[in-house]
Specification:
Elements: E1 21-24, E2 29-32, E3 35-36, H1 37-43, H2 46-55, H3 61-72, H4 79-86, H5 94-105, H6 117-142, H7 156-165, H8 171-184, H9 191-200, H10 206-217, H11 225-236, H12 242-251, H13 269-285, H14 290-305, H15 314-324, H16 332-353
Antiparallel strand pairs: 1-2, 2-3
Bound molecules: s-citryldethia Coenzyme A.
Length: 378
């Protein structure tokens, strides 16, 4: 067996063959099933994009209507899951609540039938339909309120914002939120997708696959960065404080949240679109001075780190969009998960189609033949 050179974080090592999405990090290109992200953001919807990723091509009108209908009629969560959430501490992080609830969903569908396309479709529909309801339910419960039922007369994104804020959202906000989901749904072999594929390769159920990926997404170096970016902008507080803050980070060799990427060595194409979405919201709903701070950060980081290919990534502007929508900061990563579930499920399905359990090797740098010392000799 040929052993490759050890690469920390598997940097540059292909972990799978996939036709789901493609990134060109030098040119700043992202494609879902070959379609450029800019075109999907302008012309598609989240559910249509989810269908494209999972089943490999854009749905016909009938196929899309059927998929939307199924998702719409599966939005409600089991009352036992709601009762379980009532026992969660209000201080708990919503990503932990989501991971527990996604795993619990699997308790209700234990008859795993991975070779049955109907089982796969049912699992896809249930997870895409219920994850937003779980996120919104925990948000209302941790405030001491009863969760609200999904509204069948609202689209996917409008219904989520309704369940979260208990009021029908402005149509522009609902459309912009749907575009944010399109931008965050899929991104080749990122850490949480890799986690999903490893879990899928053991032939466990899709609920465990999603729970595993949610746990991975929550880290601050991955999906958790969007929450950290807003906290960073608020901590900086003014444009004048940007340069000293960045210089201090570099001095301490600490990472600046929302910047840098393992693949992109130019500005993340998703960040470019999100910046435009933020500006649309500011124009209609009022300005957020943090945007001035963010733009100054972008200028100073480019001045100091462009040579290392460090530019804004998807997490740098998404928080400003969500904050303008009145979404609490610690829900930014759960929203990333609402989007990414469809990407994880596309990879789950692709892994099953040609599966081999993940079992990499290691470079052993420990000892051999070590004697066992009795405790009184240690
Ligand atoms: C996401 O993989 C994906 O596709 C992820 C994602 C997706 O859609 O799934 O795009 C979503 O996770 C976006 C990334 C969100 N994370 C952050 O914003 C956290 C801050 N970013 C960094 O932690 C970092 O940029 C990573 C983790 C994103 C990528 O790190 P790498 O590829 O492991 O790069 P590295 O740590 O090896 O850094 C290379 C150099 C180092 O300098 P030197 O030691 O060579 O002198 O670049 C520097 C780093 O110090 N560097 C940074 C930096 N990121 C890299 N310096 C300051 N601030 C940063 N943010």
């Amino acid at each position: 067996m040929m052993v490759c050179e050890y690469k920390p974080g598997l940097e540059g090592i292909p972990a799978a063959q996939s036709s789901i999405s493609y990134v060109d990090g030098q040119k700043g290109i992202l494609e879902y099933r070959g379609i450029r992200i800019e075109e999907l953001a302008e012309k598609s919807t989240f559910l249509e994009t989810a269908y494209l990723l999972i089943w490999g091509e854009l749905p016909s009108k009938q196929e899309l209507e059927a998929f939307e209908h199924e998702v719409l009629h599966h939005r409600r969560i089991k009352y036992r899951i709601r009762d379980m959430m009532k026992c969660f501490p209000e201080s708990g992080h919503p990503m932990d609540a989501l991971q527990a609830s996604a795993a619990a969903l699997g308790l209700f569908y234990s008859l795993r039938d991975l070779h049955n396309p109907a089982y796969i479709r049912d699992s896809v529909v249930r997870l895409i339909a219920t994850i937003p309801t779980m996120v919104a339910a925990f948000q209302l419960m941790r405030k001491g309120n009863d969760p609200v039922r999904p509204r069948d007369d609202l689209g996917y994104s409008a219904n989520f914002l309704y369940m979260l804020n208990e009021q029908e959202p402005d149509p522009l906000m609902a459309r912009i939120f749907d575009i944010c989901l399109i931008l965050q749904v899929e991104h080749t072999m990122n850490a949480s997708t890799f986690s999903a594929r490893v879990t899928a390769s053991t032939l466990t159920d899709p609920y465990a696959v999603v729970a595993s990926a949610v746990g991975t997404l929550g880290g601050p170096l991955h999906g958790g960065a969007n929450e950290e970016v807003i906290q960073m902008l608020d901590k900086i507080g003014s444009v004048e404080n940007v340069r000293p803050y960045i210089e201090d980070c570099l001095q301490r060799k600490s990472k600046i949240m929302g910047f840098g990427h393992r693949v992109y060595k130019v500005k993340d194409p998703r960040a470019i679109i999100l910046q435009n979405l933020a500006e649309q919201l500011f124009e209609k709903f009022g300005y957020d001075k943090s945007y001035d701070i963010a733009q100054e950060m972008e200028r100073v980081v480019e001045e100091k780190l462009a040579g290392k290919g460090i530019y804004p990534n998807v997490d740098f502007y998404s928080g400003l969009v969500y904050r303008k929508m009145g979404i609490p900061t610690d829900l930014f990563t759960p929203i990333f998960a609402i989007a990414r579930v469809a990407g994880w499920l596309a990879h789950w399905k692709e892994q099953l189609a040609e599966n081999r359990i993940f079992r990499p090797t290691q470079v052993y740098n420990g000892y051999h033949e070590v004697p066992y010392l009795p405790i009184d000799q240690r």
